Amino acid sequence: MAQNRVKKRSLADRPGSIHYSPDQNTDSFMKLVSYKKKGRTQAAMLVKDQIFDTDGMDITVPPAMQDILEQWEFYYPVLLRHHKGILESKRDHVVSTPLHKVQLLAPVPFPTSCRDGYAFRQHVEAARRNRNVPMIPEFDQYPVFYFTNHRSIKGPGEILCMPDHLEKLDFELEVAIVVCKQGINIKAEQADQYIGGLMILNDFSARTLQMQEMLLNLGPAKGKDFATAIGPWLVTTDELQAFEVACKEGHVGKTWNLKMKARVNGKQVSEGNLADMEWTFAEIIERASYGVDLYPGDIIGSGTVGTGCFLELNGTGKLNHKNYMEQWLKKGDVVELEVDRLGILSNTIVAVQTDCSILTKKKGLATGTDLG
To answer: CB–CB of 203/172 below 8 Å?
Structure first.
């Protein structure tokens, strides 16, 4: 890995950690969104509570987020200029729509790929402790990720779940970045230039399916391929400069002092901070791009923050309390992931009415017959 690493400091000592109070209003931030408009996806800018279509502000800017990302270095300054004009009331002629009148989609509704990392030490240590196995030394040697289904990206709103998904259904509290320019063999020291912005990510996980298939040392696949929610908007890295903090000792790349919380039906169940990432997005990009092109529109998740899923919380609870009752998401539950400056991503669990199941197709060991 790279030399000249930044020395580790506590959050209290890191730049950006004391400039803003937790309840600071972010109306002045430029937030990019996508929503459904006349049967198609429309890219837009959210300013306060108003939606401004990208092509409505400037006919040279495409109406699709993917097209904007593919020419990010050209269109981003144009969007910044219009954002500044709107804040200064110099764009009164531009038509806008109230936020409450649109249904937001994922900010990047059709990503070119979706990788998810494993970057938070607390989560990995807790998960292994709960399984009574030692911390894996390879965690400190290189960052890892897996590919998930980039065609199952969801935004705020309903998450449709098949019956097998509801067998130990879980959330995962994460942050994701979107790549904004093409590159291969990207060095970690330059990788932050490839990040267009940050958004919240919820890696919905069907744990029964996941645990079954991972017994074969492959996956996760069916346990995680049905829904990955991102949103509610994309915040560009320029808007987060005041919250940048030093990465962990021996690492390189940006990280941000952003508190992360998860609530289920209004009750807080998780809390962490993006600055606790051991491996930075820059380092994950370096590994992901080795011998492989990354493209504008690629999404990369951070992995689960410490305490950021029921799987970890249940394991810790059972370790500490013999009569601990496991908790999992159920039909009708509302999951809210909140990250400072990135908003609140809210999803409701909806059960698909069907008797279709692959768990019941599991074969018997002796006869090879279906167990169901």
So the answer is: yes
Stated pTM of the model: 0.91
Which of 41, 75, 101 terminates a domain? The answer is 101
- Whole-number Å distance between alpha carbons of 43 and 258: 25
Domain that holds residue 145: 113-356
Cβ neighbours for 254, distance < 8 A, ≥ 6 positions apart: 192, 195, 237, 244, 247, 280, 281, 282
> Per-residue pLDDT tens for 44-85?
999 999 999 999 999 999 999 999 999 999 999 999 999 999
Residue 151: partners with Cβ closer than 8 Å, 6 or more residues away? none
Q: What is the CATH number of the domain that holds 333?
A: 3.90.850.10
Q: Are 206 and 64 in the same domain?
A: no
How far apart (Å, rounded) are the C-alpha atoms in residues 198 and 195?
8
Q: What is the pLDDT of residue 352?
A: 98
List, for the chain, all residue ranges whose pLDDT scores fall below the cut of 50: 1-24, 367-372
Q: Residue holding tokens 């941000």?
A: 256
The pLDDT value given to residue 18: 27
Q: Is there a single domain that holds both residue 35 and residue 119?
A: no
Place of tokens 């320029």: 238
pLDDT recorded at residue 27: 77
Q: Are residues 68 and 201 in the same domain?
A: no
Q: Is the peptide bond before 111 cis (omega within 30 degrees of 0)?
A: no
What is the predicted pLDDT for the residue at 94? 81
Tell how far CA 171 is from the center of its chain.
11
Helices (H), the chain: 54-57, 65-70, 72-87, 121-130, 188-191, 207-214, 281-288, 310-320
Q: Domain count of the chain?
A: 2
